[in-house]
């Protein structure tokens, strides 16, 4: 339940505060970061499926993109999480940041395809955005890791 | 066994996602409208809180620059009072000429007041969601302004109780614009960051930093003389046929969360 509530709050923040604080249209993807956190500490990919569908539907409702696209993209991110978890142990901050960065890059790479094909943005702009998201994620994931370890957010994974 | 389970779960999840995706074809808008009805009180409260923070920050900024700001406003007030008197005379003369030439007055714009309830989580802040939809008379393509006739954008997607507004900062948006004083015309589009791109300007046309840019009304999408922004910097290249300029948008950073949809301009 606390996962669902925190994802709900993250989706609301993502559609409001984080967009206003974004730089050049790039903002922190709090929902994806929380999903990775739950998967990393809370029992792996199996525990991610329902929260991913739940948060995907919320973001789909708030977004102008075709309905279902974000849900599908989050499911693909869960797929990548499962793949990474087979080879990389879920142990420390570096691993957590690696999981976060890889899923974020995968998520935005998938989203960039329809944007690129529709001609709304060039490859350069999309690549710059992807890079921006990755940089945001490195900082965001690090802060979340520190918060979890310092018990400010430990209730989220307990 | 573990992989098999995963495949099953992933397939199930993907099927759900595809089903929702497919619902677009069958009309996902009622479903999206229902979800937005649940989410909008929360996102709306967050947007209003953002506005409140912005107002408080503005108040502190004003306290910091109080005396300078006061002097600047006094000078601006004097200048505007002078302009208003001149405008009154011009208005009278205009009315007289209209009567003599039997030309009807321009149509007054009809406005629908709406609140901004969220931003698009994917497109940065170039699309906003407002709490008025087709039930309130909003249609796709209608121009959207803020108080003071400041152009915000146009309605790009409608639901029963909500609409999405594409801001003029969206790179896909094109607006026919001109400078307020010298009538230097061009086309406006979104640009990287919070700036707008004033493009296709005649190379020899007069343009200065700080010039006010307004809509020309030539595109038929936006009424004329809506305020767009101010020239920030001019990009001039000797070899290029046209010159370009970056504009600072007049709509600011959405500290005000109310906008107006112009409902009687779209044909």
Instruction: Please tally the β strands of chain B and state the result.
Output: 12
Summarize the biggest pleated sheet of chain A.
none
Helicity level of chain B: 25-40%
Residue-averaged pLDDT of chain A: 82
State the major sheet of chain B.
Answer: 6 strands, antiparallel, barrel
Greatest interface: A-B, 47 and 46 residues
Discrete helix count of chain B = 3
Element string of chain B (H = helix, E = strand): HHHEEEEEEEEEEEE
- Poorly predicted regions of chain A are none
Q: How many H/I helices of chain A? A: 7
**Multimeric organization:** heterodimer
What structural keywords apply?
heterodimer; A: 158 residues; mainly alpha; 7 helices; B: 267 residues; alpha+beta; six-stranded antiparallel barrel
Structure description:
The complex is a heterodimer of chains A (158) and B (267). Chain A has 158 residues and is mainly alpha-helical. Chain A is built from 7 helices and no strands. In chain A, helix 3 packs across helix 6. In chain B, 35% of the residues lie in helices and 28% in strands. In chain B, strand 4 (150-158) and strand 5 (163-167) form a beta hairpin. At the A-B interface, helix 1, helix 2, helix 4 and helix 5 of A face helix 1 and helix 2 of B.
SSE arrangement:
The complex is a heterodimer of chains A (158) and B (267).
Chain A lengths: L1 H13 L2 H5 L8 H12 L7 H14 L6 H19 L5 H26 L4 H27 L9
Helix pairs in contact in A: 1-3, 1-4, 3-6, 4-5, 5-6, 6-7
Chain B lengths: L1 H21 L6 H36 L1 H36 L9 E9 L7 E4 L12 E4 L3 E9 L4 E5 L6 E6 L5 E6 L5 E7 L9 E4 L11 E9 L6 E8 L8 E5 L5
What's this model, at a glance?
The complex is a heterodimer of chains A (158) and B (267). By secondary structure, chain A is mostly helical. In chain A, 73% of the residues lie in helices and 0% in strands.
């Amino acid at each position: 339940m606390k996962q669902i509530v925190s994802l709900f709050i993250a989706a609301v923040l993502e559609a409001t505060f984080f967009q206003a604080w974004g730089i050049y249209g790039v903002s922190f993807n709090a929902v994806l970061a929380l999903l990775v956190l739950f998967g990393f500490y809370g029992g792996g990919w199996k525990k991610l499926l329902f929260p991913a569908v739940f948060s995907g539907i919320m973001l789909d409702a708030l977004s102008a993109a075709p309905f279902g696209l974000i849900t599908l993209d989050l499911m693909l991110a869960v797929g990548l999480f499962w793949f990474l978890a087979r080879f990389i142990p879920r142990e420390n901050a570096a691993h957590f940041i690696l999981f976060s960065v890889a899923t974020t890059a995968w998520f935005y790479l998938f989203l960039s395809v329809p944007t690129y094909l529709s001609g709304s943005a060039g490859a350069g702009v999309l690549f710059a955005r992807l890079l921006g998201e990755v940089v945001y994620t490195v900082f965001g994931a690090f802060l979340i890791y520190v918060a979890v370890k310092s018990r400010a957010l430990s209730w989220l994974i307990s | 066994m573990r992989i098999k389970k995963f495949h099953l779960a992933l397939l199930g999840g993907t099927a759900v996602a595809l089903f929702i995706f497919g619902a677009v074809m069958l009309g996902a808008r009622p479903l999206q409208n229902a979800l937005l009805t649940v989410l909008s009180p929360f996102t709306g409260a967050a947007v209003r809180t953002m506005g409140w923070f912005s107002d408080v920050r503005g108040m502190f900024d004003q306290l910091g620059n109080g005396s300078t700001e006061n002097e600047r406003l006094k000078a601006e007030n004097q200048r505007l009072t002078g302009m208003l008197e001149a405008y009154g005379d011009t208005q009278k003369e205009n009315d007289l000429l209209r009567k003599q030439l039997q030309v009807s007055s321009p149509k007054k714009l009809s406005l629908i007041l709406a609140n901004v309830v969220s931003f698009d989580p994917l497109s940065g802040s170039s699309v906003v969601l407002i709490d008025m939809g087709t039930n309130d008379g909003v249609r796709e393509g209608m121009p959207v302004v803020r108080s003071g006739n400041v152009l915000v954008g146009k309605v790009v997607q409608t639901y029963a109780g909500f609409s999405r507004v594409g801001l003029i900062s969206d790179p896909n948006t094109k607006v026919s614009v001109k400078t307020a004083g010298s009538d230097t015309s061009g086309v406006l589009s979104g640009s990287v960051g919070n700036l707008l791109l004033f493009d296709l300007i005649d190379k020899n046309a007069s343009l200065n930093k700080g010039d006010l840019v307004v809509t020309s009304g030539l595109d038929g999408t936006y009424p004329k003389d809506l305020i767009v922004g101010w020239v920030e910097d001019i990009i001039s290249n000797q070899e290029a046929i046209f010159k370009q300029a970056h504009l600072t948008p007049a709509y600011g950073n959405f500290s005000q969360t109310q906008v107006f949809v112009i409902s009687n301009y779209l044909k």
